[in-house]
Write a structure and sequence with these properties.
This protein has 252 residues and is α/β, with parallel strands linked by helices. The chain contains ten helices and twelve strands.
């Protein structure tokens, strides 16, 4: 379990997130939703120690994030940032190999190679694993980065807007893979999503944020309803059921 206890983060004189407390359930997909500037990415960064918090504490299976050794933490939790710019030219396999560094450093062992092979196979990248990243489509690049996270073999996987700049087909592929990671591999996935219909279709838990605070949170079926959505987005959003999934008709 990830426990967020009274966490605040400021940028200069501006409040990013304020006195946030929540618990992330194991073995589930938890989606952070809300308008731009709600604090979703800031909360994700603080949870993973990419940014220090100004107040409060984050515990991962009882380990305090701010006081736990980096190498130990990197075997518990992995994060994929919204933008991933690399200054070196790498193949998919070389990128995925980076996921094993918390375990073996620069000395890649046969066990590491098995994890790398498994991650590449799981993301259906075997046929292009020796292709360079700068020659890939956006969807292929995102699958490659997720393969790197898989190779890191952490229980907790955090992703900041993993569908950013992806077309419909590749966005669906990524969400299906994340669902499989939870259902088949027992991972715990926390992600920031802007499209509430993807959150509705694939999440177990939704945490809704606004103005640096959590507005409400709960099981997806309870969260995707007009009254809650109006509190978060300040607009009327009808909800319909299509193929047993709640669909938000926010474009009408």
């Amino acid at each position: 379990m990830i426990e967020v206890c009274n966490v605040s983060k400021r940028y200069g004189g501006k409040q990013g997130i304020h006195q946030i407390s929540t618990q992330i359930r194991k073995g589930a997909i938890t989606s952070l939703i809300g308008p731009n500037g709600a604090g979703k990415s800031t909360l994700l960064s603080v949870m993973s120690r990419l940014q220090p918090m100004d107040e409060g504490e984050v515990l991962i299976d009882g380990l305090p994030v701010g006081r736990t050794d980096n190498s130990k933490l990197a075997r518990k939790i992995s994060i994929l940032k919204q933008t991933n710019h690399l200054n070196v030219r790498l193949t998919i396999r070389q990128l995925v190999t980076f996921g094993r560094f918390p375990h073996s450093g620069n000395r890649i062992t046969p066990d590491d190679e098995r994890h790398i092979d498994s991650a590449i196979r799981y993301m259906n990248l075997e046929n292009i694993q020796h292709h360079f990243l700068d020659r890939l489509s956006g969807g292929q690049r995102q699958r490659a980065f997720i393969a790197m996270v898989l190779a890191q073999d952490t229980e907790y996987v955090l992703l900041d807007e993993p569908l950013n700049n992806l077309d419909m087909k590749h966005a669906v592929q990524i969400m299906k893979v994340l669902r499989r990671m939870v259902d088949e591999l027992g991972k715990t996935v926390v992600l920031v999503l802007h499209d509430i219909n993807f959150a509705s279709a694939y999440s177990d838990i939704i945490v809704a944020m606004k103005d640096g605070r959590i507005v409400c949170e709960g099981p997806t079926d309870q969260m995707i309803e007009p009254t809650t959505l109006r509190r978060v987005y300040e607009m009327d959003i009808p909800v319909q059921v299509v193929c047993d999934k709640k669909v938000c008709v926010y474009f009408s």
